[in-house]
Each structure stands twice: as C-alpha cells, then as structure tokens.
Amino acid sequence: MIKKILIALMVLAIAGFSGMADAELIKIGTVTIGADYLGSGGRGGGMPGMMQGGAPTSNEYSMIYEDDTGLIWIDYSSGGKEWPEQVSWAKALNEPGALTYKFDTGATIAWDGDWRLPNTVDGPRKNGFDGSTTAGFNITSSEMGHLFYVSLGNVGCYNKNGEVEPSFAGLKNKGPFKNLAEDTYWSGTIYAIYTNHPWQFNFYYGSQDFTSFTNSYAYPGLAVRKGKVTFATAS
Predict the structure, then answer these.
(1) Is 203 in contact with 185 (CB distance < 8 Å)?
(2) What pTM did the predictor assign?
(3) CB count in 10 Å sphere of residue 165
(4) Using alpha carbons only, what angle is made at residue 167 by residues 145 and 172, rounded to the nearest 5 degrees?
(5) Quick check: is 8 in a domain?
C-alpha cells in the first residue's frame, strides 16, 4: 500500500511539473545588438497603450525562450516605425555581425529559421471576444496573443463574454521581460484580403486587429525566432 501511495505521489509530482512547464518563459542568455541595427528604442506617448521612454542606455538584451511554442524572443522593442521598415529591421538582424550571442551556462540552441516579426494566423476579419476570431480579444492563436495571454498570464480589456473585465490591468505581468511595452506592435503577417494591411497586437488592451501601413502608423517591433533550447543537467 505504501509503495502504491509513493508511486501515485511521484506521478502527481511529474504531472504538476509538466503542467508548470507548458508555458514557461526562461531567460537563456543575451544578445548584443550592433549599433547600426538598433531602432530608436522608444517614443514618447501620453495615453494608455503607447510606449514610453527614450533611447536605450545599453545594447545588450535578454533572450527569452517560450518553451511551449519553441520561440526565442529578444527583449528589445524597436522604436516606432512604419511596417515596411520594421520588417526590414527584423530581417537585418540575420546579417553577419548584427547580433553577438552570449548564452547562459548550460543552455544550447538549435536554430530553426531566421529572426522576424511575430506571426499571426490570417483569415477574414471577424471581431469577437471568445478567442475564436481573427480580431478582438482573448486571441491566443497569434504569437503575440499567446505571449500576452498564455505565457505571461495577462487578461484583456474584455472577457470572453464581451463584458469589461474587472481585473483588467494592462500589461500587468511582464515575466522576465523588462522592455516589453504597453503599446501596439506590428505583426509580420499581412492581411491577405487587403495586402497593405498587416496584423498588429496591442499589449495594453490585449486586442488584435489589422491596420494600414500606408497611413504613417509608427509602431514598435519585436524580433522572434524559432529554436530548440536544451539545458545541460548536473552530473
């Protein structure tokens, strides 16, 4: 009987550990961004959802691994730029000499693909609140939506019933991120129906939509890349 109880406790412990790791954000090292590849590092703003602050004081930023998606994020918000410029900025990070990597002890990575802006699942625009639509709130199918709601555990301005969420507090949980801002960030995905309208995600309200890049909207960008991270175990 005691043996059966111990086995049951071990199974529960393993299950609990696995559950905790389903959406874990882990700092795995830093990258130094070459001076020619830095954006302005921020823009002033006087309303909720707009990025605050000035130029960066350092060009070394954390790399954060989102283990359930296999994504590595650079904890750096490039300055507000129109969409074509942000796409070019993220692509340029793949050039030789753009980034210098410093991995934490024991962490190794097998890269898959290049640095880019985050992806969004495209489809005809349908606004909603339950997370099943392409626009609106509680959407976790996009990479930024998953980061905001699942991995960071934030709540949007509206709940899944379309009611104002009483516990809404913007980007309350930032996890290991220090430079993620309560701002609208560009996605790298174009809305297929209107090809000059990329998708974007607001890290204050938790909302997703598309907007035109021909009307001089200047939003920051996040660089993200797929990779498999492994950690050495103590012998």
Answers:
(1) yes
(2) 0.84
(3) 17
(4) 55
(5) no
Residue 107 lies in a domain: yes
% of the chain exceeding 90 in pLDDT: 76
The answer to whether residue 211 sits within a structural domain is yes
Dig out the tokens for 118 from the structure. Answer: 């985050």
The predicted structure's pLDDT at residue 23: 76
What one-character DSSP code corresponds to residue 78? P
Domain that holds residue 191: 24-231
Distance CA(167)–CA(186), nearest Å, equals 26
CB distance 62 to 103 below 8 Å = no
Torsion of CA 188, 214, 211, 124, to 10 degrees: -80
Number of domains in the chain: 1
Handedness of CA 210, 220, 43, 170 (dihedral sign): positive
17, exposed or middle or buried, with CB in 10 Å at 0-12, 13-18, 19+? exposed
What's the rounded mean pLDDT across residues 141-161? 98
CA distance 41 to 9: 49
Token digits of residue 158: 């509206």
**In sequence order, what DSSP letters do the residues of 5-17 get, joined into one string?**
HHHHHHHHHHHHH
pLDDT of 217: 85
* Separation between Cα atoms, residue 71 and residue 188, nearest integer Å: 15
Minimum mean pLDDT among 9-18, 51-60, 118-127: which range?
9-18
